[in-house]
């Protein structure tokens, strides 16, 4: 049903009665809000809350991280992207206990890091795997000996022969089986980086923190490394956070976190983004747009939670945002008369319904209130973000405009 004419932009799109197959799949994925759950119940291996960080002191003090929240569950691979200087590595080193927390809270493997004692920090570190952008190998040690150092730091040490066997297997897994006895000076940059990857994984850590682990690798080596990451996540439930600019490995991610000027600006569940793209295609405005393009748009959508009674859209406001209901139910109300003293219910919308779609292009004022009836989750897309997404994609704009203005 439609409650939108040429002068309005609150549109109610009835969901298909036959959408059960898509909906069942869609419900399997719960999007991660940038605002993380603050219960610290231990379910997340990495739990970051309200992290601010500063460099320097006095007049030279500069804030580099702003109110960051992040959770990483067992078995998740999270890729962190963003421009140079956006704070990615700083946040990674805070998670990895390499920097001291100044403001906010971080729990790693259930252990609060702020004000933790040195022996508690050391116990956490032994359960982490680090892969640094600079490989940090010891030049006097062979590849096997460099990797074995990670095992020698563990509280329960295996025999030397068992350690060597484990290290040899890990070096073989990264394609260096024939170079286990080579020292760093005899290895290429990419080979040194693969030794660093093997060292970060050999002790089977519960969390892996990697800073540009594939930047120096060729295509085949990249695949070897990311397949190792996937196996660790899938088989052992390892949580993996990768800071990278390497677009070749984005396909391995469960989530992509984008940092912008010291803040996590986007936290996108890729499975959910793909499904959101399919849901968007059911909206008439986007019906002629390819699913791949819609998935790109879905990654830019903002997730919001609304309590019963919350007003999502206000009559008369500028219409510059499109909404899709992920969960819950809303009521659409319009004025009874020209005085607009009283409003009457004209529709109820639920999961999978849309409203405000032509606002992306027209910017007209709203012709109705939209209020949450139940606990509701919406995904929304503002006009500015929409324009950023379609920059350089003239075909998308033409597709949408032709759909909206074809009448």
Automatic annotation (TrEMBL):
Entry EC number(s): 3.6.3.-
Record key words, sorted: ATP-binding, Hydrolase, Nucleotide-binding, Transport
Residues in Cyclic nucleotide-binding domain copies: 285-407
ABC transporter domain location: 46-286
Enzymatic class: hydrolase
GO cellular component: plasma membrane
InterPro entries, sorted: AAA+_ATPase (IPR003593), ABC_heterocyst_DevA (IPR014324), ABC_transporter-like_ATP-bd (IPR003439), ABC_transporter-like_CS (IPR017871), ABC_transpr_LolD-like (IPR015854), cNMP-bd_CS (IPR018488), cNMP-bd_dom (IPR000595), cNMP-bd_dom_sf (IPR018490)
Molecular functions per Gene Ontology: ATP binding; ATP hydrolysis activity; transmembrane transporter activity
Keyword Hydrolase: yes
PANTHER family the record matches: ABC TRANSPORTER, IMPORT ATP-BINDING PROTEIN
Protein name: Macrolide export ATP-binding/permease protein MacB
Lineage of the species this protein comes from: Bacteria, Pseudomonadati, Planctomycetota, Planctomycetia, Pirellulales
């Amino acid at each position: 049903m439609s409650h939108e004419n040429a002068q309005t932009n609150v549109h109610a799109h009835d969901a298909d009665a036959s959408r059960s197959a898509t909906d069942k799949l869609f419900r399997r994925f719960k999007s991660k809000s940038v605002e993380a759950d603050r219960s610290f119940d231990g379910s997340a291996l990495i739990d970051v809350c309200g992290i601010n960080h500063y460099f320097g002191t006095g007049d030279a003090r500069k804030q580099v991280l702003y109110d960051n929240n992040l959770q990483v569950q067992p078995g998740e691979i999270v890729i962190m992207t963003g421009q140079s200087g956006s704070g990615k590595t700083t946040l990674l080193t805070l998670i990895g206990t390499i920097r001291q927390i100044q403001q906010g809270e971080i729990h790693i493997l259930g252990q609060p890091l702020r004000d933790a004692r040195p022996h508690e920090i050391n116990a956490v570190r032994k359960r982490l795997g680090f892969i640094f952008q600079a490989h940090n190998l010891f030049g006097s040690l062979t590849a096997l000996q460099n990797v074995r150092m990670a095992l020698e730091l563990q509280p329960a040490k295996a025999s030397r022969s068992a350690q060597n066997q484990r290290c040899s297997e890990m070096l073989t897994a990264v394609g260096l089986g024939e170079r286990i006895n080579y020292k760093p000076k005899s290895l290429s940059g990419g080979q040194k980086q693969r030794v660093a990857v093997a060292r970060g994984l050999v002790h089977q850590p519960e969390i892996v923190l990697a800073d540009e682990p594939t930047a120096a690798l060729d295509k085949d080596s990249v695949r070897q490394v990311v397949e190792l990451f996937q196996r660790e996540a899938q088989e052992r439930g390892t949580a993996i956070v990768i800071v990278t600019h390497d677009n070749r490995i984005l396909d391995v991610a469960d989530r992509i976190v984008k940092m912008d000027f010291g803040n996590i600006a986007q936290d996108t569940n890729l499975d959910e983004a793909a499904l959101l793209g399919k849901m968007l295609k059911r909206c008439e405005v986007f019906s002629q747009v390819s699913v791949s393009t819609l998935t790109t748009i879905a990654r830019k959508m903002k997730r919001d939670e609304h309590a019963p009674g919350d007003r999502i859209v206000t009559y008369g406001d500028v219409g510059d945002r499109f909404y899709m209901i992920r969960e819950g139910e809303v009521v659409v109300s319009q004025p009874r008369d020209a005085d607009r003293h009283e409003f009457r219910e004209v529709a109820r919308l639920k999961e999978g319904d849309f409203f405000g779609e032509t606002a992306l292009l027209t910017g007209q004022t709203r012709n109705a209130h939209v209020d949450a009836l139940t606990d509701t989750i919406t995904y929304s897309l503002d006009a500015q973000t929409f324009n950023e997404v379609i920059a350089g994609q003239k075909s998308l704009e033409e597709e949408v405009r032709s759909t909206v203005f074809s009448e």
